[in-house]
């Protein structure tokens, strides 16, 4: 049998609405993981450079391992349909540094933007507490079917009048058992849970056990009356 | 593979939906707008490019096509292009697009010798990569030159919708209005075969804009 | 329209060569051709063991219809030549005629040429073809400044076509440029309404990457060009870049 385990590192996408803390999450992962594995980052800013500069300034990674991709005001296109600019940049970084993990940050768009599985092996969707407790319940492809949902800035819950546990429970219900991690930089257990999840994905990828899946372009067909998927659909 | 009429292949290559990161390009328009270009100036900007930068690009493509179809080396074509493209930012943007295009053509025409030669070329500029696609697709030199000109005009027009929003029928009218100049330039360049004859028509303000744009920290487009 | 093409057989050209000897460099100057025709006359200002300094002075009224200025310049192995122009040049209204201005430069191994050009003004009605062609041998370096100005004060300017090319050892092209300045070059992206185009060309050496980023274009082969656009002739050449490059050269 040929060895099908991939020779390149894991490509991890980080997407979610503007301001939910994607760049901070990537900076956090770099800080936590840089001692254990080789990393690289690609940012997709709506106004380029901003996020790349934030990360370079945070000093968590050598500046040449952080590259910005211009999206021509089409952040959705750049991670979903014409992923060429991102792929070329990722390949460039892989060629130069052979990283174990490449983190790709989407340009903050809206609730519907998710990565193409042709670009990333696994993806994290980031929401934040301050965005409101009902966001998780409203759903969408990223919230429901990204490999991981992070509910960020949980320490802010009391200040913005959001019931943290309720929001997490809503998210878990919407995700049909897929992982949810409530995250706060000040809660070291939550940080450990996040890095453990990412590390496990790196291991799965290395073993050839990770099959990229598409969260889908839109909310899935849902049934208000039942969760039984075996019922008959009426003929169209 | 069954024979495919070359006009269909030309349509494929000219299509904005071609996955070559075209949405990241503004053909210098963003740099121009950062320096005060307004919507009313864009048709003149398009015509200025057709008289300068586009002639260099189309000339390079046509000569590269000749070299590909006559078993001549590509390195002198790339050297001639580079000597006519003094802006580092523009050379870099072109090479990035060349890589994007090679990535695609390698998928479409894996067995075509011209595509293999182009994709094996280190730092292949976009014009030369397009010539590889044209050779594989069986396009004539004049069609290739038209493609280069048409794509440049469309890139400016579509980027202007992002940067200087206006009725898209208006920007398409600019493109339509520029077609005679595209055809004229293509006809004038289609016969070129020698790298030394590639036009070197300079666009000094475009070059300075491009360099400043590449150093700006707030931009939507790669170039 | 009648075109008075210059009679090249009776025009006067200029040859200047500076070659090394055991002592002071050998400077040869010749202006063959029709002695009544105008030309550029090199005046030796200073010379030494491996260097010379020359001023290019117009001999006769320049630049009028029918004039064909031609300058061949050779700098020998390891020699440094500085060329200055005491004044700029005005191409006058040629009333349907035209003039030409051709410079050919040959730089031997390790030769250096520093040419501090002065503004070249293309008056309304002037029609000029200019060319500069440079061949650099191994280790040769060129530093040249040039200002092209469309029109005297208050004029739109005439028509100028300039071919500029530099080639390295084995004929590798380093910089090839055609500049056409006329009514249509006022379009955005070319001159964009500016009157003066200033250029500093530095070839044969890598310039400190942080030196003068404004208007800076780094070439594929070791070399840098600085560009400036201005409404005023004396502001077009990026002064800081020129001064810094002169020090570096």
Automatic annotation (TrEMBL), chain A:
Is the keyword ATP-binding in the record? Answer: no
Q: Where is this region: Disordered?
A: 209-236
Q: Drop me one GO molecular function for this one.
A: GTPase activity
> Keywords of this protein's UniProt record, alphabetized?
Chaperone, Cytoplasm, GTP-binding, Nickel insertion, Nucleotide-binding
**The keyword GTP-binding is annotated on this UniProt entry:** yes
Any one of the GO CC terms: cytoplasm
One biological process term from GO is: urea catabolic process
Q: Which residues form the CobW/HypB/UreG nucleotide-binding domain?
A: 13-181
Where is this chain's protein located in or outside the cell?
Answer: Cytoplasm
In terms of domain of life, where is this protein from? Bacteria
Basic and acidic residues compositional bias: what residue ranges? 225-236
At which positions is GTP bound? 16-23
Residues spanning the signal sequence? none
| UniProt similarity note | Belongs to the SIMIBI class G3E GTPase family. UreG subfamily.
NCBIfam families annotated for this entry?
ureG (TIGR00101)
> Which proteins does it associate with, and in what oligomeric form?
Homodimer. UreD, UreF and UreG form a complex that acts as a GTP-hydrolysis-dependent molecular chaperone, activating the urease apoprotein by helping to assemble the nickel containing metallocenter of UreC. The UreE protein probably delivers the nickel.
Q: What does this protein do?
A: Facilitates the functional incorporation of the urease nickel metallocenter. This process requires GTP hydrolysis, probably effectuated by UreG.
Cross-referenced PANTHER family? UREASE ACCESSORY PROTEIN G
Q: What is this protein called?
A: Urease accessory protein UreG
TrEMBL record, chain C:
Subcellular localization(s) per the UniProt record: Cytoplasm
Keywords (A to Z) from UniProt: Chaperone, Cytoplasm, Nickel insertion
Assigned GO CC terms = cytoplasm
Q: Which domain of life is it from?
A: Bacteria
User: InterPro entries attached here?
Assistant: UreD
Q: Which Pfam families match?
A: UreD
User: Which is one GO molecular function term here?
Assistant: nickel cation binding
Q: How does it assemble?
A: UreD, UreF and UreG form a complex that acts as a GTP-hydrolysis-dependent molecular chaperone, activating the urease apoprotein by helping to assemble the nickel containing metallocenter of UreC. The UreE protein probably delivers the nickel.
Q: What does this protein do?
A: Required for maturation of urease via the functional incorporation of the urease nickel metallocenter.
Q: Which family does it belong to?
A: Belongs to the UreD family.
The entry's protein name is: Urease accessory protein UreD
- Which organism is the protein's source? Nocardioides glacieisoli
**Which gene is transcribed and translated to give this protein?**
ureD
């Amino acid at each position: 049998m040929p060895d099908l385990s991939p020779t390149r590192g894991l490509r991890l996408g980080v997407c979610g609405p503007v301001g939910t803390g994607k760049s901070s999450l990537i900076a956090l992962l770099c800080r936590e993981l840089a001692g254990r594995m080789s990393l690289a980052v690609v940012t997709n800013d709506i106004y380029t450079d901003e996020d790349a500069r934030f990360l370079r300034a945070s000093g968590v990674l050598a500046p040449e391992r952080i590259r910005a991709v211009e999206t021509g005001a089409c952040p959705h296109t750049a991670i979903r349909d014409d992923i060429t600019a991102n792929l070329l940049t990722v390949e460039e970084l892989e060629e130069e540094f052979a990283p174990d993990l490449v983190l790709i940050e989407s340009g903050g768009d809206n609730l519907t933007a998710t990565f193409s599985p042709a670009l990333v092996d696994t993806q994290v969707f980031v929401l934040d507490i301050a965005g409101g407790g009902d966001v998780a319940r409203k759903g969408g492809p990223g919230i429901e079917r990204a490999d991981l949902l992070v509910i960020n800035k949980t320490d802010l819950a009391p200040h913005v009048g959001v019931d943290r546990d309720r929001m997490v429970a809503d998210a878990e219900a919407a995700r049909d058992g897929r992982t949810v991690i409530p995250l706060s930089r000040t809660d070291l257990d939550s940080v450990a849970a996040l890095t453990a999840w990412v590390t496990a994905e790196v291991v799965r990828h290395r073993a050839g056990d990770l099959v990229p899946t598409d969260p889908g372009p839109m909310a899935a067909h849902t049934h208000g009356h039942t969760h039984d998927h075996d019922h008959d659909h009426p003929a169209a | 593979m069954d024979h495919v009429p070359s006009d269909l292949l030309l349509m494929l290559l000219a299509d904005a939906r071609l996955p070559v990161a075209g949405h990241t390009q503004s053909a210098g328009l963003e740099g121009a707008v950062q320096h005060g270009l307004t919507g009313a100036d864009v048709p003149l900007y398009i015509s200025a490019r057709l008289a300068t930068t586009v002639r260099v690009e189309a000339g390079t493509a046509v000569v590269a096509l000749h070299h590909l179809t006559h078993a001549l080396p590509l390195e002198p074509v790339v050297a001639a292009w580079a000597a006519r493209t003094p802006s580092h930012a523009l050379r870099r943007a072109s090479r990035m697009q060349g890589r994007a295009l090679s990535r695609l053509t390698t998928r479409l025409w894996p067995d075509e010798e011209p595509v293999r030669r182009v994709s094996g070329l280190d730092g292949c500029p976009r014009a030369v990569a397009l010539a590889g696609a044209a050779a594989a697709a069986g396009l004539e030199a004049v069609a290739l030159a038209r493609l280069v000109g048409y794509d440049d005009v469309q890139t400016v027009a579509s980027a202007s919708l992002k940067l200087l929003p206006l009725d898209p029928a208006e920007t398409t009218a600019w493109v339509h209005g520029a077609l005679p100049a595209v055809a004229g330039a293509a006809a004038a360049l289609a016969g070129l075969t020698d790298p030394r004859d590639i036009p070197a028509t300079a666009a000094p303000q475009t070059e300075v804009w491009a360099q400043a744009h590449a150093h700006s920290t707030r931009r939507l487009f790669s170039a | 329209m009648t075109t008075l093409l210059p009679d090249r057989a009776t025009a006067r050209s200029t040859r200047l060569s500076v070659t090394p000897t055991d002592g002071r460099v050998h400077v040869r100057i010749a202006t063959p051709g029709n002695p009544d025709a105008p030309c550029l006359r090199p005046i030796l200002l200073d010379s030494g063991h491996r260097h010379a300094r020359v001023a290019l002075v117009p001999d006769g009224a320049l630049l009028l219809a029918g004039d064909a200025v031609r300058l061949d310049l050779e700098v020998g192995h390891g020699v440094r030549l500085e060329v200055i122009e005491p004044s700029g040049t005005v191409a006058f209204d040629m009333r349907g005629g035209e003039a030409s201005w051709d410079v050919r430069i040959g730089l031997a191994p390790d030769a250096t040429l520093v040419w501090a050009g002065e503004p070249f003004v293309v008056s309304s009605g002037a029609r000029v073809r200019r060319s500069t062609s440079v061949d650099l041998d191994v280790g040769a370096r060129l530093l040249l400044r040039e200002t092209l100005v469309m029109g005297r004060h208050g004029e739109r300017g005439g028509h100028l076509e300039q071919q500029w090319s530099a080639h390295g050892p084995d004929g590798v092209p380093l910089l090839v440029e055609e500049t056409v300045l006329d009514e249509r070059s006022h379009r955005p992206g070319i001159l964009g309404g500016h009157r003066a185009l200033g250029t500093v060309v530095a070839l044969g050496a890598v310039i400190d990457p942080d030196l003068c980023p404004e208007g800076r274009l780094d070439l594929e082969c070791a070399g840098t060009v600085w560009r400036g656009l201005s409404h005023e002739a004396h502001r077009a050449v990026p002064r800081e870049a020129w001064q810094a490059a002169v020090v570096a050269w």
